[in-house]
């Protein structure tokens, strides 16, 4: 069994591009112009790494259950 990953969005940094919600609609939604994780903990999936890597302002952090940063690299 693999441990969950944690997703955080820094709302102060997010510029509301909507890229993450478009790329990973199962994991991010837009709320008042700011991205919000749909669930704070997710099963490990490449999709959330891709979203974190693609965020133009690096507002998304994906961490393992120890708190170590997985993405963005
Ligand atoms: S990709 Fe980054 S800047 Fe764009 S909505 Fe998501 S968190 Fe915000």
UniProtKB/TrEMBL annotation:
It comes from the Bacteria. This is Ferredoxin. Pfam families: Fer4_13. InterPro entries: 3Fe4S_ferredoxin (IPR001080), Fe-S_cluster_ET (IPR051269). SUPFAM superfamilies: 4Fe-4S ferredoxins (SSF54862). Transmembrane segments: none annotated. Keywords: 3Fe-4S, Electron transport, Iron, Iron-sulfur, Metal-binding, Transport. PANTHER family: FERREDOXIN. Gene3D superfamilies: 3.30.70.20.
């Amino acid at each position: 069994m693999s441990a969950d990953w944690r997703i955080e969005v820094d709302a102060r940094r997010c510029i509301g591009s909507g890229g993450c919600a478009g790329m990973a609609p199962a994991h991010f939604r837009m709320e008042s112009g700011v991205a919000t994780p749909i669930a704070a903990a997710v099963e490990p999936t490449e999709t959330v790494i891709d979203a974190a890597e693609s965020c133009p302002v690096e507002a998304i952090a994906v961490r393992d259950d120890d708190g170590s940063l997985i993405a963005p690299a």
